[in-house]
Amino acid sequence: MDKLLDILQDLRPEVDFESEQALIDDGLLDSFDIVTLVSDIRETFGVEVGIDDLVPANFNSVAAMQALIERLERA
Amino acid sequence: MNIRRYAWVIELLAASVVVLLVLYTINHTVIKRDNLGYSSLSRTLPDYYAQPADSVDVLLLGTSKTMSGLMPAILWHEYGISSHLLAGTGQAPLLSYYLLEEALKSQHPKAVVVEGNMLLRINNLDYLDEAYYATIDHIPLSLTKIKLALEMWSYAEYASPEVTLLPFIRYHQRWLKLTKTDFVLDPIYRRSLHGAWLWPARRVQLAEGYMAIDDGGAAIVDFAGIYMQRIADLCAHEGIQLVIVNMPDQNWSTSRSDLTMAWGQERGVPVIELNDSDNMAELVLEPGVDLFDPSHLSKEGAVKATRIVGRFLRDAGVPDRRGTALEAEWNLDYDFYEAYRRVVDLRDTTDPGTWLQFVNNPDYTVLIVSRLDMTEALVGDVPWLLSQLGVKANLTATPTWSYIGIVRGGQTIYEQFEDEPITYDTDLADGRHVRISSNTDEPNPSIVLMDGIHQGGGQQGITFVVYSHQMRSVVDVITLNSSPPRHFIR
Amino acid sequence: MSLTSLWFYVLVAVLLAVYYITPGKARWVVLLIASWGFYLLAASQYAPYLAATTFSTWLAGRLMGREQVRLDAQLADDGERKVLQAASRKRKARISAGAILLNVAVLATVKYGGFAASNLNVLLDAIGRDWRVPVPELLIPLGISFYTFQSLSYVIDVYRGKIESQPNLARYALFVGFFPQMVQGPIGRYDALAPQLLAANRFDFERIKDGLGLMLWGFFKKLVIADRGALIVANILSNGDTYQGLYVPLAMVLTALQVYCDFSGGIDIVTGVAEMFGIQLATNFRRPYLAQSVPEYWRRWHITLGAWMRDYVYYPLALWPPLARAGRWLRRAGLKRLGVLLPAMTAELVVFAVIGIWHGAEWKWLVYGLYYAILIILGLVLGPYATKVGNALGLRDERWSTKALRITAVFALACMGRYITRADNLSHTWELLLRTKAAWNPWILTDGSLWTLAGSNNETLVLLAALGLLGVVSVLQERGFALRERIAAGGRAAQWSVIIVAIVVVVLFGVYGPDYPSVFVYELF
Questions:
Q1: Are residues B195 and B110 in the same domain?
Q2: What does the pLDDT read at residue B209?
Q3: Which of B94, B257, B386, C407 lies at a C-alpha separation of 20 to 30 Å from B473?
C-alpha cells in the first residue's frame, strides 16, 4: 500500500489519493499518467499489467489499484 | 403447422410486389419515350407492338440506310404489302437477330428483308449505345431480353446486363430533365410511319462509276456473320422468306457486292443488289433530289428503291392486303406518311418566304405570338405572305408590341393586337387546348402551350408554332426577329 | 465484384436462402464457401496471399495452443511455476513473433516495397552513388490491410491468453475471410466475431429487415451524398483558375463529409448484409464529426483500426521497459512532466505514423498521421492551460454553445487534414493552401455561386437535403434516440414505407450507372 502511494504521490503530488474514488472518471489522472503509473507498478511489484486490465475501474481509487496488483501477484 | 410462423412470407411477397411496382414506375418514367413525336428510334417497337395481330407480312431490318431507304407506306400504296421497319442507326446483326426473335412473338411475317451491308461493316457494339438502347429499352423483360443482355455484354463492356435489363440504371439521372412530356404515357398520335425515317434531299455528288471500283479488302466480319447466320436459321426454321437487300450506296464496291451475293447463294437466300446496273438504270438517282448523303437515300430516292424491293416481294408471294380489314388503317397511315413528307420539306426550309408558302395549307393551324417591333424582320414579300396566311394586323406598326394570332389556310381564326401583355386560351377544332401568351410575368416573355406543354416562344421576335391537324402534333416552330443575320431561327 | 454491383446483392439473396435452408450445424460452411467464392470471383490472383495469411496465423495459434496444453500438464505436475511459465511464454513469443513478422513482411513488401525502393533510390542519387535498387511493382491484394490486421489480432490475443486457439483451419479461414468485411473492414476481433460466424444463427425476419434498412442507409450515404459530393470536389479542384479562395476550404469540408459518407456508408452496407445472416459486425463509426476533442474524434472514426492500434501498438509501446526507464530517468532529473509524457507521447507518435501509412505508401499519408499525432500531443501538453483559459472566458462544459464551439473546432481540424489526403501529393497540398490564400471571396456564400457547383440547382438541393437528413439523424442518434426501434414500433407498414421511400430516393437521386464508375475510397487502402 505504501509503495503504491509513494508512486502515486511522486506522479501527482497535488492529488489527495487516499480519499479520491474517481481518479480516472473525474480526470485527475490522464492517459499519460496511467502509462507511467503502470510501468512504475510493473517495475516496483514485478507484475504484468495486461492491456485488458487498463480499464477505469481498476484505476479509479487506490484500493482498486491495490486489488489489481494483488490479483496479478497471485496469477 | 403454425400459420403465424410463416406470416413473414406473405409480408415479403407483398413488399416485393410494391417495390417492383415502384421500380417499374420509375423505369417507365425515366426511359426515353417519344409519345409526342412520330419518327424516332424510341417509337420503333411501341409502334410495332401497337399493330393488330397477324397484320405485318414483311419485317425490314438494317441500319439507317434501310430506315431512310425503304418506306412501308410505299409498299402499301403500290403493292398492298403490310410491313414494319425494325431497323436502327448502326444496327448490329446481333440486335437485328433479337429484334426479329422478339418481333416473331406477336406477328407471323411472310418475309424478312435484311440489309446486306451489315455483313461487312458492323464488327462490334462499341458505338451508338444511345441508339441501341433507344430501341432495346422498349423490349419488355423476357427470356429474349435476358439472352440479348448477356450476349451484348460479351461483346461490349458498357452493356453490363443489369444496365440492359434495368434501364433506370442508365436513365435515373434524367429526373433532372423530366418535363411534362415524359408523363405523356400514350402516344398522342396513333398513326405510324412503321419505323421509317424520311430524310430531306441534299446536293450530293454522285461518284462516277462507283461500282467499278474493286477495293478488294472487303470481308465478312465474324461478329456480323454469326448473327446473320442465326437470322437465316431462324427464318428457315419459321418458314419465312429471307431477302438480302444492298441499299444504294456511293461507297459500295463490286467486291462487297460479290461477297454478299455469295453469302446469299450459299444459303439459297435471294439478294437484291440495288447498286447493279439494271437497278441503277431504273432508279436514275438524281443529286439534289434522291440522296441525303453518299450512303443514304432521301425520301424521294426511298420511293424509287422501295418500288423495286416491293415488286420482288410481290413476286415472291407476299399477299396484297388491299380490300381486307387492314385497308382502312393502312390508308390512314399512308395519309399520315404524305402529311409527314410535307412536314419534312417544311422543316428543311430556312427561307422565310418559302416557309410561309409551305405553311399556307389547310392542314396547318399556325399559332403566332410576338412582343416586339418587327420592322426589320418583315421585309420583302414577307408582309404580303403573312396577309395571305391570314394575319390581318400590320405587324410593322410601332410602338405596338404585343400580338397574338391563330390562322389556318388563309383564314383568320383569332387576332389581338395591344400595347400591353395578352394571354389567350382556346380550344382548337380537334379539341386540343391552346394558351398563347405575351405576358411578361410568364417565365418566358412569349409562349405557346398546348395541353399545358410548352411548344415554342421565349425568344424575342415573332414566333410561329405550326400545328398539323392530320398529325395531331406541332410540326415546326420558327421565330423571325429583327437582329440580322439570324432573321430565321428554328 | 463490387459492393455497388447489383449482382452482389442477387448473390447475397440467394446465399441467404441457402444459409437458412442449410441445417444449423453446417451454416458456417455456407459462409465459408461464399466468402472464398467471392474472393475468387473478385480477385482470384490474390487468393494465395489470403491463403498464406490464413494458414500461417492459424498455425501459430495451433502451436501456441499446444504449448499451453504442455504447460498445463507440467503445472499439474506441480513444477517450478514461475520458471515454467516464463519458459512457456518465451516459446509462445517466438511462435507469435514468427507469424507476425511473416505477415507484416508480406504486407510491407506488397504495400510499401515500391515506395521504399524508390525513396532509397532518391537517397542513393543524393549521396552520389550510381547503383539503384530495383523498384518492385506489386499490386496490392484485395483487402490485405484489413485481413492482415484481423488475423494478427488473433495471434496476439492467443499469445496473451485472451482467447483459445481455433483447432479447425476451415473455421478459422471463415474468420479471416468473411466476405462482407473483406473489402473495407471493419477489422473484427476473434472473440467477438468468430462465435457468431460459427453459430447456427436462427432465421429472424425482423433482423433481415433491420439489415436491409441499414444497407439502404449506407447506400444513401454512399450514392446520394458521397458520390455527388465527390463530383463537386473534383470540379472545384480541377478548375484551379476558376475556383480560388473560399472555394478550396469548402471543397475540403465537402471532402471530409464525402469520405465519411463513403466509408461509413460502405460499413453500414456490409454491416447490414452481415446482420441478415444474424452476425453483428464491430461498430466502426460513432458520428465522428460530433466529437468534442481530437482524441475523441479518433475514438469515433474508424473505431476498429483505432482500437487495434491501441491494443496492439500503443500500450505495448508505451509500457515498453526502456521507454519507461527513460521516462523515470527524466523525472528523477527534475523534468517531471516530460518524464511522464515521454512514453505515451512516443507511442502516440508511432501509432499515428502507422495509422497514416496504413492508408498507403506515400509521404502524404505519413504526414497525415503525424498531423493528428501533433494535434493530440499538443492537446495533452497544452490541455491544462487551455482549461484555465476556457474557465477564464467562462466556457462551461455543459453549455451547448461550448459543445458547439468544440465540435466546430474539431471538425475544422478534420477538414484541414483533408488538405493533406485529398491532394495528389504534398506539393499539391501546398498548392491548394496557396490557392486558398489567392483570393478573398466570402461573398460566394451568399451570391448564389455555390448553386451551380453540382451541375444544377436541383442537384445542389438534393445534396443539401441529404446532408440535412444526415445531420438530423446524427444528432438524434447522439441524443440516444433509437431511430430503427422507433420505426419498427410503428409496425410493418411504417417499416416498409421507410424502406420503399429509401429505395426510391437511392434509385432516383444516387450517383451510379454506366456514366459513373463507383469505387469505395477505403477499398484502395
A1: yes
A2: 63
A3: B386
Q: How far is the CA of A39 from the CAs of A23, A35, B141, B168, C316, in angstroms?
A: 18, 6, 70, 62, 11
* Closest Cβ opposite residue C504 in set B12, B22, B176: B22
State pLDDT tens for residues C453-497. 877 788 888 999 999 999 999 999 998 888 888 888 888 888 999
Question: Is the CB of residue C310 less than 8 Å from the CB of residue C426?
Answer: no
The ipTM of this complex is: 0.81
Is B160 in the C-facing interface, judged by CB distances under 8 Å?
yes
Task: Measure Cα distances from C433 to C197, C366, C411 in Å.
Answer: 48, 19, 18
CATH number at residue A48: 1.10.1200.10
Distance CA B161, CA B170 (A): 12
Cα B61–Cα B67–Cα B69 angle in degrees, nearest 5: 110
Residues B195 and B327 both lie in one domain: yes
3-state DSSP assignment of residue C519: coil
The residue among C314, C373, C304 whose CA lies nearest residue C145 is C304
How is C443-457 classified by DSSP, letter by letter?
Answer: GGGTSSGGGGTTSSH
Is there a single domain that holds both residue B168 and residue B316?
yes
Residue B44 domain boundaries: 33-342
Q: Which of A41, A51, A73 to mutate to test the interface with C (most CBs of C within 10 A)?
A: A51
pLDDT at C138 over 90: no
Q: Are residues B200 and B72 in the same domain?
A: yes
Nearest-by-CA chain C residue for A38: C319
pLDDT of residue B188: 61
Could you tell me if B23 lies within 8 Å of chain C, comparing CB atoms?
yes
Q: What is the pLDDT of residues A16-30, one digit of tens each?
A: 888 888 887 777 777
A29-68 residues touching C, CB cutoff 8 A: 30-33, 35-36, 38-40, 42-43, 49-52, 54
> Which pTM was predicted?
0.83
What is the distance between the alpha carbons of residues A62 and C172, in angstroms, rounded to a whole number? 42
Q: Report strand pairing: B271-273 vs B423-427.
A: unpaired
Cβ atoms of residues B446 and B438 within 8 Å: yes
Residue B393 has a pLDDT of 79
Kindly state the average pLDDT of the residues C119-134.
Answer: 82
